Amino acid sequence: MERSTTGEAEMEVDDVECSSKTAINQWSLVKPFGGCQPPKQRSLHASIVVGDCLYIFGGYDGSSRVNDFYKFSFKASKWSQIHPAGSSPTARDRHVVVSYADKIYIFAGYDGNNRVNDFWQYDTEHEVWTTVDPALGNPPTPRHSHSGVEYDGSMYIFAGYDGNYRSDFHRYNFQQRKWSIVPVKGSVPKARYRTSAVAYKNRMLVVGGHDGAKHLNDFYQFNFDTLEWSLVETTGQVPPPSPRDSHSAVICGDSMYLFGGSTGSARNDLYAFSFETEQWTEVRSAPAGTKNSNVPCPRFCHTCDVYNNSLYVFGGYDGQQRLNDFWQFKLATEVNIDIPSSSLVADLREFLNDAKLSDVTFLVEGKPVYAHKLLCMRCSYFRAMFEGQMREARAA
Question: PANTHER family annotated for this entry (predicted)?
Fold first, then answer.
């Protein structure tokens, strides 16, 4: 079950500068500095934040799969295309990306003709791709539309489509460089693809997807310590997000945020699940017609990442055309406090030989020198003089 269209019209992006003081719960378009070009329109790509940069690889541009590679620097607010030396992953979409030890890992996907299960590593420091040897263990079958997370030095791959809808669960240990099938127990989620997966503390959370017949909105957790699947218990009055696939989910603080997806038509709703209250809430932005009321158009097959308490959504498909707009949703206001440099030394210097507040006077060659018994804290000689039985202890 694959969705693609051709002959897409070029989208016009209304550039709106993203202010560093954007208020909480408001969307704004990110406008890069310097006129640098963002990645072209695409869907079914993969992205990840490493350090202070967002990396985007591959996807489908409406006519073909691509393997271009871009980086957005949050500090410089600038896009740049990466041209690594040597070989690179082939063009593909519906792949998975994770990061470990400042390296980016891409696994599997669809190249336009075949499902693949090759495994690539990108070194962000040396800017080079290398293949990861898949020979050890039992790697997943060639597939696309799977999901994956990194936890405790391993990459976990769940579900996807390999000619059949899957619910299998695989682990790749980065230190051992070995694949293994995770021996799970409990209430295993039904087979699906285009689900979301995030890691929170010692759990992986999976929401929704498509089982080949219908959209899903079931909510599962996998405990990495007990290797057990279970349904997530929720409370509160707000119902969970409607059944959907091709959405995005991310973790920020003690909440999971879910944006967009397809319910049969594109969506642009935003939900939060609090792990503290175990409740879903729909996160609404500023009302239409008010200042900063812009919102991303409905979409699916986009990406969403978290950086510095903000969500960043790039691209996707709105049901008619591929997109390359770049949106920020701030989850917490920035508090800018101007902390002055310390004036302690200068303030204490003002008391030097000043009669004001002085509690002891030294007569040096007949001249008074005003001081403070606080000097006992720094000098054992004067501490003995003022705290002992000497007459100076009773005189000023």
Answer: LEUCINE-ZIPPER-LIKE TRANSCRIPTIONAL REGULATOR 1 (PTHR46376:SF1)
User: Residue 201: CB partners within 8 Å, gap ≥ 6?
Assistant: none
Burial group, residue 297, by CB count within 10 angstroms (0-12, 13-18, 19+): middle
Q: Per-residue b/e over 174-183, b at no fewer than 16 CB within 10 Å?
A: beeebbeeee
Q: In sequence order, what DSSP letters do the residues of 127-166 get, joined into one string?
A: TEEEEPP--SB-PPPS-BS-EEEEETTEEEEEEEESSSEE
pLDDT, mean of residues 28-49: 91
C-alpha to C-alpha distance for 102 and 203, rounded to whole angstroms: 22
C-alpha triplet 311, 317, 323: angle, nearest 5°: 70
Contact criterion met (CB below 8 Å) for 192 and 185 = no
Total count of residues recorded for the chain: 396
Amino acid at 324: N
Amino acid code (one letter) for 182 = V
Alpha-carbon separation of residue 59 from 20, 64, 315 (angstroms): 30, 9, 10
Task: Name, in order, each residue with C-beta under 8 angstroms of 264's C-beta and a sequence gap of 6 or more.
Answer: 215
Determine contact, residues 45/61, Cβ cutoff 8 Å.
no
| pLDDT tens digits, 43-68 | 999 999 999 999 999 999 999 999 99
> How does DSSP classify residue 15?
-
6 pLDDT more than 90: no
CA separation for the pair 360, 22 (Å, rounded):
56
Q: To which residue do tokens 């992006």 refer? A: 13
Contacts of 268 (CB under 8 A, 6+ apart): 259, 260, 295, 296, 297, 298, 299
Domains, the chain, ranges and CATH? 27-330 (2.120.10.80), 344-394 (no CATH)
- Three-state DSSP at 380 gives helix
